[in-house]
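> run fold Hydroxyacid dehydrogenase
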Amino acid sequence: MPKLLISTSSFDVKNNQVLQNLQDQGFEIVLNPHGRKLKEEEVLELLNDDVVGMIAGVEPLTRNVLSSAKSLKIISRCGIGTDAVDLVAAEEMGIPVDITPTATVIAVAELTVSLILSTLRRTFEASRNLRQGEWKPLMGRLLASQVVGVIGYGRIGRRVSTLLGAFGAQTIAYDIFCGDSLFADTVCSTSLDEVLEKSNIITLHIPYTPENHHFVGSSFINKMKPGSILVNAARGGIVDEDALYDALVSGHLAGAALDTFEQEPYSGKLLTLQQVILIPHMGSYAKEARMQMEQEAAQNLFNRLVEIGLAK
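> ok
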């Protein structure tokens, strides 16, 4: 019996009609037994010779993993990023990799704005203080008075900019494609230095690639305005967390909010700083977005299975 592996930490198979249809056609569905991001050796254990397709999370799908999965023909990512997949190896082995590019946009954009607001108004700090018995209102800043630099102006970056505009904030975007007609409706720059110099808040919306490793390092941070804020709801590895820590301790940055980390689960020294909001990679974890993402991932898997004649 052919198998389909769902390696995400959770997935609502029962209410997914596409997967129910595939089960009716004789496919056995194998779930992630650990309820968390899988390690490479755990993926290897689950990708046995009977697995022909998978709905993938953010676990490492390395060349070693892909070459060991002798029957694997399809990878359908439940999400937008592919940095955990060795795309060169997948292409060499003829394994298509599909993503769900639209489902996460609203969820990640809304979370980003909530992180910006919480950092500006210091609500997380105040909540912690109150729970520890300290009644002390904290002075914050107005979002309407800020200039927000949006680094990466794809679907999510554009949605963030739209939401910020409703608050009265000014946005300026940086993207390597800023000269294209797509960006005619916004202030967009091909000069990263210009954006860093003008912005009180920097929010990141770029993919992780080897070239973008520690894109936000000491040089980047030093060019940010004194007292500014950094928000990362994109990908871990983009930010040099040690450089960020140093900038926060020195006071060069007033605060930061991170949803993603270079190593997850995160256990580093940023946890010791009160002016930092740290949450466990939950950008797409809105019920409606998650349902759409799972439906799209299952449909992508089904379409590929039909293409190669394994489903109908």
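Residues 107 and 286 are 6 Å apart (CA to CA).
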